[in-house]
Amino acid sequence: MRTLALLLSLAATTPARADIVRMRPFEAGNRSVGLQLGTARPSEPLFKQTVRAGAISNAQAMLYVWDWVAVGAEIGYLRFFKKNLTGQASLKGVPASTDLNSEAQALAALALVRVNFFERGTWTPYALGGAGMHRFEQTLNAAVSVGGQPATAAFTANSTGLAITAGAGVEVFLVRDASLSIEARFHQFRLDSKKFNNDAESLSIMLGVHFWWGRDW
Fold first, then answer.
1. What is the C-alpha separation between 115 and 70, in angstroms, rounded?
2. How far is CA 43 from CA 20, 22, 103, 132, 204, in A?
3. CB–CB of 128/168 below 8 Å?
4. 182-194: buried (b, 16+ CB within 10 Å) or exposed (e) per residue?
5. How far is 185 from 123, CA to CA, in rounded Å?
6. What confidence tens digit (pLDDT) does each residue in 17-53 have?
7. Which of 59, 57, 110 lies closest to 79 in space, CA to CA?
8. How far apart are CA 74 and CA 134, in angstroms?
9. DSSP run (H or E) holding 109
10. What are 122-166's pLDDT values in tens digits?
11. Closest among 140, 36, 52 to 89, alpha carbons compared
12. Helix (H, G, I), strand (E, B), or coil: what is residue 46?
């Protein structure tokens, strides 16, 4: 009986695990900042012919205005790696070449709206979308003939314009004020038709780490 009484006493004075590891829920008043890293693949048919898959990085800040809806801002950088080409280039004014390679990069500043599928949970699937401005640059290096002699010429064009994004993912709290996300994202960069034959589009897969503060719960 004394042993049983001692065990009951210890149980009463020891906090439950749920009290020790108390996760933050997604709810109004919470704020977060995060970093996302991943791969970016060109998806627009003509753009896909001129560059290879590359990398993407995003810095993001969000504010939950309702328990299931957040607004925020994001700065993203995408780099598409060099690809060896034959045939027509994607930049206007570039002569045809049998020895050509191309690479591209984009910097975008976006406003975002996010909707969670689960309300006030410690994990949730979500969808988001947004728009903003971008600065896009593409460079082609071509083999040309100068005075009958082979030479290399670089052609660079850039564009500033509208950027559009949409995506979906899953985010889960790992500890009280930090979460991990995995996200699929689409980007479209509207390019100057006087310089480019097509817009640039990409599909990305990213992992993210986010840090939270805000509502006292």
1. 7
2. 46, 42, 15, 20, 10
3. yes
4. ebebebbbbbeee
5. 19
6. 334 446 778 889 999 999 999 999 999 998 998 899 9
7. 57
8. 12
9. strand 97-116
10. 899 999 999 999 999 999 887 766 666 666 778 899 999 999 999
11. 140
12. helix
Find where tokens 């995003």 sit. Answer: 58
Residue 114 near residue 126 (C-beta atoms within 8 A): yes
Reported pTM: 0.81
3-state helix vs strand vs coil in the chain, percent to 5:
10, 65, 25
User: Which neighbouring-strand residues pair with 193?
Assistant: none
Output phi, psi for 68, to 5 deg.
Answer: -115, 0
The structural domains of the chain, ordered by start, are 24-81+105-119+128-134+160-213 (2.40.160.20)
Amino acid, res. 164: I
Cα→Cα distances 61→39, 58, 76, 79, 147, Å: 21, 10, 12, 22, 55
Tokens 């695990």 locate to 17
